[in-house]
From TrEMBL:
Entry-linked InterPro entries: FAD-bd, FAD/NAD-bd_sf, FAD_mOase_fung
Protein family per UniProt: Belongs to the paxM FAD-dependent monooxygenase family.
Pfam family for this entry, one: FAD_binding_3
Reported cofactor(s): FAD
SUPFAM superfamilies cross-referenced by the UniProt entry: FAD/NAD(P)-binding domain
Domain FAD-binding: 2-169, 278-360
Gene3D superfamilies noted in UniProt: FAD/NAD(P)-binding domain (3.50.50.60)
Keywords: FAD, Flavoprotein, Monooxygenase, Oxidoreductase, Signal
A molecular function (GO) term: monooxygenase activity
Annotated source species: Pseudallescheria apiosperma
Protein name according to UniProt: FAD-binding domain-containing protein
Signal peptide: 1-16
Length: 435
């Protein structure tokens, strides 16, 4: 069976790893960019259930990741005036609960990790291949790229992100792709995100958050890099695509320059801005599309579900969707090595059914939190006057465990570093005898 994947982002690369584990050797990833590892984006955080999957992908990925990431420890929340209202060892609590830690990566380093550990990476991932058209029959699916090259496979997986061309080619919308978001997606926030070097006074392993009215700020600090996100609510929700110029980004950043980002008020956003390595201003899409597959083609990751990044869930959710799809394909090819279109359609529908409700939950949870962070800050500030919230575990134990505890893993690949914490996984460790 030959599988074509469109896009070498986190989803496409995890799909490739997992398909190789499933015995699908004949695969190709078509990537629009000229290089897979590009200096772009800010950070990406992996929740413990996704770390389980990294372990399963093997080829030394987890070991390399463990050497790369900082030991995350504390979450500090500042009130609207910049005063400290909450400080918890949230990341330590997460690790106690699940065994594996929350891992923070600079995004390009995460892509590099997945790419450099992919067997036969330079043969499997073809760069400079921008998919432009798609056709399928009852037996095969073909795509043509901008450079005129053509690729044919038994299955095609569109892992080409929130503005997926595969989705437009399947369901229409090619004409107004530059102007409109896909049906199901909208944007209510925009965000300046970026990264830069560690400044004196920033503590590695900390996340600092601060909300002030419609503005929210997050900063995650690794051993040598600070990754930051400045969210601003749009005046009106939009379903149009907005393109911002560098001048608009500079202008917006300038309005936030005196926004204090540490509890002793010694560092302002302007300091992060002046020392940044890179930054980008973009609208943040939210939503789910209604149909995730058609015939021999399935969509995975941001192409199907897109959430705000404030809870660090989008990439985790995308990887979990990749896991769900590969589990089902692996199961199918045990009995049907060259599956019919009908068999594939059943698998794709079951995959959507398995993933849709959790993706919707994460999308809503992220949206709810960002919209009401200022209210939460007020509430915590009020409660904190009467009782100490220092190292309170309520949020980690009652809310955050719901993120990782039910997380899917590959059901056919043993875990090499199995870990369990205070909260048992819903899916038991794979590869260990339960007897
Ligand atoms: C500021 C910010 C911070 C975030 N932080 C986190 C976090 O901490 N944790 C987390 O889990 N998630 C986070 N996310 C979300 C996460 O980045 C996405 O969910 C994730 O990147 C989705 O991966 P993907 O592979 O589906 O899509 P993408 O990362 O968008 O990758 C799609 C790939 O497809 C390629 N492509 C596109 N069109 C074509 C074409 N026509 N032909 C060939 N290739 C094509 C693109 O070049 C790209 O390489 C964050 C998002 C943002 C915006």
């Amino acid at each position: 069976m030959r599988v074509l994947i469109v896009g070498a982002g986190p989803t496409g690369l995890v799909l490739a790893h997992a398909l190789l584990k499933a015995g699908v050797e004949n695969l190709v990833i078509l990537e629009r960019r000229q290089t897979v590892v590009e200096a772009s984006g800010a950070g990406i955080g992996l929740w413990p259930h996704t770390v389980r999957v990294l372990d399963q992908l093997g080829d030394g990925i987890l070991e390399s990741a463990q050497e790369m990431v900082p030991r995350m420890k504390r979450n500090a929340r500042l009130g609207s005036e910049g005063n400290l209202i909450l400080s918890t060892d949230m990341y330590e609590q997460i690790e106690e609960n699940h065994g594996h830690p929350f891992m923070l990566f600079e995004r390009m380093r995460f892509i590099e990790l997945l790419y450099t550990h992919l067997p036969r990476a330079s043969d499997l991932v073809l760069t400079g291949k921008s998919v432009a058209s798609l056709s399928q029959t009852d037996k095969l699916v073909s795509v043509t790229c901008d450079d005129g090259s053509e690729y044919t496979g038994d299955i095609l997986i569109g892992a080409d992100g929130v503005h997926s061309i595969t989705r437009s080619l399947l369901f229409g919308g090619l004409e107004d792709r530059r102007a409109k978001l896909a049906d199901g997606f909208s944007a209510s926030f925009r965000c300046i995100f970026g990264c830069g070097p560690l400044l004196p006074g920033l503590v590695p392993g900390e996340m600092v958050e601060r909300s002030k009215g419609p503005i929210s700020f997050q900063m995650l600090i690794s051993d040598d890099t600070v990754m930051w996100f400045f969210y601003q609510r749009l005046e009106k929700m939009t379903t149009n695509k907005t393109y911002y110029s560098d001048a608009e980004m500079e202008e917006l950043a300038d309005t936030f320059k005196d926004f204090e980002v540490v509890e002793d008020r010694s560092i302002c956003f302007g300091d992060l801005w002046q020392t940044k390595r890179r930054a980008r201003l973009a609208d943040l899409e939210e939503g789910l599309i209604s149909q995730w597959s058609k015939g021999r083609v399935a969509l995975v990751g941001d192409a199907t579900h897109k959430m705000l990044p404030n809870l660090a869930l989008g990439g985790n959710c995308a990887i979990e969707s990749a896991v769900s799809l590969v589990n089902r394909l692996h199961n199918l090819i045990q009995t049907s090595p060259t599956p019919s279109t009908q068999e594939l359609e059943s698998v794709f529908i079951a995959y959507q059914q398995e993933r849709e409700s959790r993706a919707r939950l994460f999308t809503r949870l992220s949206g709810l939190m960002l919209r009401h962070w200022w209210l939460l800050a007020k509430f915590l500030g009020f409660v904190g006057r009467f009782t100490s919230l220092e190292n309170d575990r309520t949020v980690t134990d009652k809310v955050l465990t719901r993120i990782s505890k039910p997380g899917l893993v590959l059901d056919f690949v043993p875990e090499t570093q199995p870990k369990t914490g205070k909260v048992p996984w819903d899916i038991s460790i794979v590869g260990l005898s339960t007897g």
